[in-house]
Amino acid sequence: xxxxxxxxxxxxxxxxxxxxxxxxxxxxxxxxxxxxxxxxxxxxxxxxxxxxxxxxxxxxxxxxxxxxxxxxxxxxxxxxxxxxxxxxxxxxxxxxxxxxxxxxxxxxxxxxxxxxxxxxxxxxxxxxxxxxxxxxxxxxxxxxxxxxxxxxxxxxxxxxxxxxxxxxxxxxxxxxxxxxxxxxxxxxxxxxxxxxxxxxxxxxxxxxxxxxxxxxxxxxxxxxxxxxxxxxxxxxxxxxxxxxxxxxxxxxxxxxxxxxxxxxxxxxxxxxxxxxxxxxxxxxxxxxxxxxx
Length: 293
Fold this sequence. Notes:
This protein is mostly helical. 74% of the residues lie in helices and 0% in strands.
C-alpha cells in the first residue's frame, strides 16, 4: 500500500524526534514529500529534512537524490562545514577512499577547526586499515577537543585493536574524568585493565561498577545486567591475585590489592549464583505464563 503524504510527514517527524537512523523508511517517506511537492509543509524543518534525506539516500544507494539535496543545502548554506561534510560522505560512497581523504584534507587545510571533516578523515583512515595514521590523527583531535568523550573512546578502541592495552587504558582514564558517573565506561576500564595485567586496578574498577549499579534499597539485592558482569570480573580478578600474588605488588598504576581476597571471591561467587537462580526463576515463570494462555 502506497504511503500518503500525512503518513510520510508523521513518520519523518517521528524519526527526527527520536534521532533514528532508519534509512530505507526515511528515504521512502522523503520520496513521498518530493512527489507531492510538499517541502513547505515541513516548515522550519525542511533544511534538516534535506540533510537527513541526503544521508538516507547514500545508505540506500541513491546518490542522485543526495546530490539533489546537496544542491538545495549548498544554495541556502554556502561554505557550511556540515554541508561540506555531506559532500565528503557522498564522495566516500561514489569515489575512492583516497579521493575522499584528499577532499577532507583540503577542508582541514582551509579550516583546521572543521570537526566534522576531521572525524570523517579519521573514519576513512580506519576503514582503509591505516591504523597508525588514524591513531595519530585521533590523538591530535582528542587533545584539541578534550571534552569529546566519543573521541577518547574510539582512541581506546583503536589502541585495543592493536593490542596496546596500556595505551587504551590511558585513553579510558580521560573518559572517566569526563564522564565519571557512567558505569559502562568504568566497566570498560576494568576489563581493559585486567587485559593489561593491572589486576588490582581492574578489581578496584569492578567494585566501583558494583557500587554504582547495585540496588542499595534492597536488603538482599540480586544482581542483574551490568552488575552481574562486574561480579564475574571481581571473581576472576580475585582468583588471579590469589593464584599470582606478585600481581598485587606489581601494579603499573600502584593500586594496592585488597585484603581478604578469598572472602571477596566467595562473595562474588554467591552473587553470581544468586543472579543465575533469579534468571532461571524468571524464565520458568515466563514459560508457565505462556503455557497458561
